[in-house]
Design a protein that fits this description.
Two copies of one chain form a homodimer.
Chain A (H helix, E strand, L loop, with lengths): L6 H17 L5 H5 L8 H13 L3 E2 L8 E2 L1 H11 L7 H13 L4 H16 L2 E5 L8 E8 L4 E8 L4 E7 L6 H15 L4 H6 L8 H18 L6 E4 L1 H5 L7 H12 L1 H6 L1 H6 L4 E4 L11 E9 L5 E9 L4 H30 L1
Antiparallel strand pairs in A: 1-2, 3-7, 3-10, 4-5, 5-6, 8-9, 9-10
Helix pairs in contact in A: 1-3, 1-4, 6-14
Chain A binds a DNA duplex (30 and 30 nucleotides) through helix 3.
Amino acid sequence: MGDELSERQRAILRLLIEQYVATARPVASDVLAANPHLTVSPATIRNAMADLERAGYILQPHTSAGRVPSDKGYRYFVEHLMGTAILPQSEQRTIDHQFHQVELDVEEWMHLAASLLSRLVHNAAVVTTPHSTIPRLKHFQLLDLAERRAMLLLVVQDGTLTQQLLTLEEDWDQEHLSALATEANKHFHHLSAGELAEAVLPPDAPPLLSRVRAVLAGLLARLEEPAASRLHREGLSQLIDQPEFRETDRLKQMLDLLEGDSILLSIVPAVQAREGVQIIIGDEHRSDQMRNCSVVVARYGLPNDVNGVIGVIGPTRMPYGRAVSSVRYLSDLLTGLLDQIYGANSRADA
Amino acid sequence: MGDELSERQRAILRLLIEQYVATARPVASDVLAANPHLTVSPATIRNAMADLERAGYILQPHTSAGRVPSDKGYRYFVEHLMGTAILPQSEQRTIDHQFHQVELDVEEWMHLAASLLSRLVHNAAVVTTPHSTIPRLKHFQLLDLAERRAMLLLVVQDGTLTQQLLTLEEDWDQEHLSALATEANKHFHHLSAGELAEAVLPPDAPPLLSRVRAVLAGLLARLEEPAASRLHREGLSQLIDQPEFRETDRLKQMLDLLEGDSILLSIVPAVQAREGVQIIIGDEHRSDQMRNCSVVVARYGLPNDVNGVIGVIGPTRMPYGRAVSSVRYLSDLLTGLLDQIYGANSRADA
DNA sequence: ATTAGCACTCTCGTCTTGAGAGTGCTAATA
DNA sequence: TATTAGCACTCTCAAGACGAGAGTGCTAAT
């Protein structure tokens, strides 16, 4: 079980994976032999392939078929063979251009990032809207709606917008609501859910204020959960073209996965903990439901502050090089954008 | 081509459609004959079916197959045969219950409505977030972010929340921003995009104010377009179980349809114009892309004010009765919820 | 250590075939 | 006249047969 592969074996594994990723068909020895980078005969390649199979890097679907990479093979590939791919300059420029064209709006950015990513890699893309781990109140406002109905508007330090409708005990007009909000904003500014719950209110404060405080604390607390991330999905239709989803049940599995937030969000914490682009291949997933797909994903944003996750999800047969370079480029780009907005602020706070 | 179908033909057409909707297989004459509601022999039914086919209500996939409803057949069914279905009390209660459990939050309601609808009808569901045709400014706020970066926050009369990042010419601190916003809110309150663009500013107003006015007008104008509706999709995975989507290309077509907003939103104006639940079957659609699906859809909300659209989309083989009753119940429910919030307000304005 | 040659295995598309499904028609019946 | 039993006919579909082709592993030669 030694991990020492000969130079030739490594070359063969690399070419085999590249070939398989491109064509989705088992790769035969003479196809590889036709490759100008390999100057040996099909027979030699067959011997090497037999070794690779014994070592678990490739598989044979059936006797008279070529070989197919195993999850272990892909792992070896991304670790030792593919090098550090970089997105071509021309594509970088196209992407930059598209971001310049769009409005200055975080949601738009996320949407664009997801959509670009899915098209770059020809797989589904997922992006979470950025938010900080300990959301702090930036501003809130109370808006009169109908009699005894008000809208409580909450702006979080990380840019998140939330609203909540309130039924009031008594009738308040807009002027009084605004006054109350303006005053309270001074006290509540920059507090987290926990701090808010403990904040001291002036003794003469109206009962509405403590009610508002409770609701605000509740909203902030809900935003602390990782499940609060808004998920942008894109490029489902890219997946359907993949031959691995020809059988409808595999596709259904995938759809279920993408429709429910839970499984996707389960990988978010792991990603946020580490730096750089992460790759999870097939059976390396915890969830059975993801056993036959791969995920290439990275955190973006400010390390211990407002950040999110961007990634690609698709079958294990994935252009890992391209996926990694695309995810890396886009996550860096988003980080830059967020830094422009929140960077100075957070540095000032520190 | 007379539309007069005999009583028996109507009965046969009705049973055939019900049967086909349930099983998705061509319906044979003796299957219908086995139905206790029909006391005639298979041969008689065959004669009637031949008539129905000549008249275009049903089709025969091939010689030795049973019959399948045509789009015209479905149209006749929904118009004359299915009656006015009502959602069972028990299900109504379950739905009410779920809405009571959820927070007072419009987005949550829409999400819940879409999710419930898709499960009720076992098809994909689509709900647009409610908004008014002429959005009017309710409130805005300017929030300091980093140096020379501010967030412009816009609350529309219909509850829509929008934000836009601004790069400022000079540094403003939060206090001055708030003061400017508070003052300007008085002037801008309840204005539409058009009115806002023409609003007179005090002569001593800082240049930032006219900048803000322009941005606000732009945001409001963008919200006037029907494409501004936020679309909640749900239940894609319900579709994949439908036998009509066994062939991947049909499914792909459907996915493309649901992923792009454009085609879906194209039906929104038509729906908003009319009252009640509307049904569009197969080739009645304008867009080729929708030729083999049906849509059951209704407007909800306040007629000429804040409203949206809720509907089901799926193959033409759809349980129309159930779809109509579900859409009707949910649209009425949403209307009621919105009326509680905006109803009094809008009546006061009128 | 590499490779040519070859026998062997397994898949896949095509073809055949027969059973079964469901019809339309005809002639008998109420 | 409307209905129905009976039956021949058509077409689909699943199962089996079969051969071509793909790709291998092994052996013996280089």
